Predict the structure.
Amino acid sequence: MDADAPYSQIVYLVFAPDVVGKAIVCSLARKFDLEFNILKAQITPRQEGAMTLELSGSAAAFQAGLDFLRDQGLKVSPAAQRITRDEASCMHCGVCTSLCPARALHLDRVSREVVFESEKCTTCGLCTQVCPVGAMQARIENGAEEAAEDA
Ligand code: SF4
Ligand code: SF4
């Protein structure tokens, strides 16, 4: 991978009780020039915390940032994404089919409907950005949603 290439990934962080109160995530922007977007968080003083974070920057900065987080005692893992389609919303316009790199979305020539084969999906997320009716949706897994809902 080109170390300077733009890179974006969603990660799941677990904070031990002794590091929960520290402004570690803010250091990612200051020290590594990474942009971050907190998607979900459950942080309680003096208890274990969890956060789902989208990090964007260069690939090299991303790796350096993850090493920093681990050095600070955080557990870091990639957040699994699952892509689903809301069948009721899809109007079979075909916009997503030309973008899908995995050919998980394609036009059925007989029915003229767009078929979604979820087992081929690589969860790149491109279709969620272009679907005009928001039928393609990304769900973050790794227990992050459940943790936030309990907050
Ligand atoms: S872009 Fe959205 S509405 Fe159009 S075919 Fe794809 S999923 Fe359906
Ligand atoms: S997330 Fe990527 S691979 Fe999966 S259906 Fe959408 S465009 Fe295709």
